Amino acid sequence: MTNRYDLLVVGAGVAGCMAARVGAERGLSVCIIDVKPRDRIGEKVCADAIGKHHFDRLGLAYPKGEELKARIRGVRVFSPSRRISYFVEGEGFIVNRKPFGQRLLKEALDAGAELLDKTKALGPIVKDGFVVGVEAKRPQVGKLEIYAEVTIDASGFLATIRSNMPPEAGFPSWIDRRDYCVGYREVRELEGGLEEPDVCHIYLSSILAPGGYAWVFPAGEGRANVGLGVQAVEGHPNPRALLYEHLLSWPMFKGSRVLEAGGWFIPTRRPLENMAWNGLLLAGDAACQANPLHGGGIGQSLLGGSLAAEVASDAIEAGDVSLKALWAYNVQFMRLMGARNAELDVFRIFLQRLTDDEIEYGMSKKLIGEEDLARVSEGESISLSALDKLSRALRALGRPGFLRRLSRTLKLMKAVRQHYEAYPASPDRFKSWEEKARALFEEARKL
Ligand SMILES: Cc1cc2nc3c(=O)[nH]c(=O)nc-3n(C[C@H](O)[C@H](O)[C@H](O)COP(=O)(O)OP(=O)(O)OC[C@H]3O[C@@H](n4cnc5c(N)ncnc54)[C@H](O)[C@@H]3O)c2cc1C
Question: Taking 90 as the threshold, does the pLDDT of residue 365 lie above it?
Answer without folding.
Answer: no
